[in-house]
Amino acid sequence: MKLKQSDIFAPINLLLIVVNLVVFNLVSSDLFGRIDLTENRVYTLSDVTRDVLRNLEETLTIKAYFTRELPAPYNNIARYVEDQLAEMKAYGGGRMRYEFLDPADEEELKKEAEKFRLEPIQVNVMEKDKVEFRLAYLGMVLIYEDRQEVIPVVQSLENLEYEVLSKIKRVTSEEAQTIGFIEGHDELLLRQDLTRIDRELRKLYELKAVDLSARYSIPDDIDLLCLIGPKKDIPEKDRFAIDQFIMRGGKMLICLNKVDADLSNMQANRSALRIDPWTEHYGFRVNDDLVVDRMSPTLPFQTMTRYGRQITMVPYPLFPEVINFNRENLALKVLRQVRLYFPSSIDTSLAADMDSVTVTSLFWSSEKSTTQSSPYDINPLTRRGPLIYDMAHLPLGVLVQGRFTSYWKDRSIPIDEDGNPVSDEGIIPESPETRMVVIGDANFVHDQYIVPGLDNLTMMLNLIDWLAQDEALITIRSRDVSSRPIGEVSDTARSTVKWANILVPPLLVIGFGVFRRRIRRSARRMATEGSLAGDRGGEKR
Fold it and tell me: Smaller CB count within 10 Å for the chain: N or C?
């Protein structure tokens, strides 16, 4: 029997195809590609993450403990985590590896997960028209040399890359930066009022409460000092401690409420803070006013009528919604909308006569805004007459930077209750180049005021990262900003859009009907003419 040439080469071709596929899989195991059409490329690893993975000095191992057999949406979480870990491995250059483990039916894996403080959570499973409860593992542990970091539960995919990268940076860093939060003057407390901030910051930083009622100086290990919403006045000895921290080159984030407003009682009064001469020495002053802005939300207020209590929706201009940001600052570059609650304006003119200090506005009010001075009226239902928005672009947050002069340069060191100086060291008269961020509102980061869809939390975390000079994380955290506010438009433009929406759709339908009718009439006319022409031709024949 004579073999054909095609019969001989067919097995060889098949073998070559298989070999090529195997080689391609081996080569592409360290490569990764993805087409991401989202606005901020939220499904693509950022350049920052890639650089961190490429620069690993030792092997990083990520163990992901995920229960496989879970219904939606939990199965999607496991799939997405595994995809992202695979992409990270591709950029890790051999120094990053991961294991995807299911401890559901293996006691050894369960014990291993418990050793890493990973506990299963209870999830609801719908099976056979019944809701059942099942324990599931959805956590990860990162191991680098003799150090480890844990992500107990992955419940959201929106910020997964930031979560993992912050843990990588923490586990690979020899020493974490420390952020101090001043206490002792009824400030907002981390564990009580700022739990969202506390939880996010602890992923990367060491947090320390600095109670100035019990000490006279700021600890040397503090890299960034935060003063958030003090209600009591700050005594001279505490101001001295803060001043000398700045003179050592320390950075600060200051959020002040110069007006104490109570929305439940509809009352507002000037706060107990009397620190203007002190802050003016550094080039800024938070004014004792309330900013009123047309760019604001509509809120429900209860009113009494002859029919009883009713809920009325009223615009509330004392809650400005900020969309004007200094886009040159990395911390604010991609923010969309932040809502402030009873903010005060900031006087930036004081630094004009200072040679070594500059003040830059970070965000400001809209083109239609104004201020309200004491006595304050925060009840929108008792307001007399329309509001007149005769101001624009009032500074609400500023950056103050440069070389500061000590407030105590030509003064004596403050004394304690026993009449002794609070410091045995000499006064540091001038600071090196440093910076502080000042915001005329502290309510915007309070747990009860953080609203989903707004960027309050993101802005606060970004500013802290920027002040701490960990700017790399800002580009990742900001990618999932979801607020998309509509810009302020004129009354004429608003009316035009309104009537266009009302009139254009029916006009289009009418126009399409007229066009369709003309087409049909033209078709009937042509058909009639063709029929008549056919009849004449038949008569001639």
Answer: N
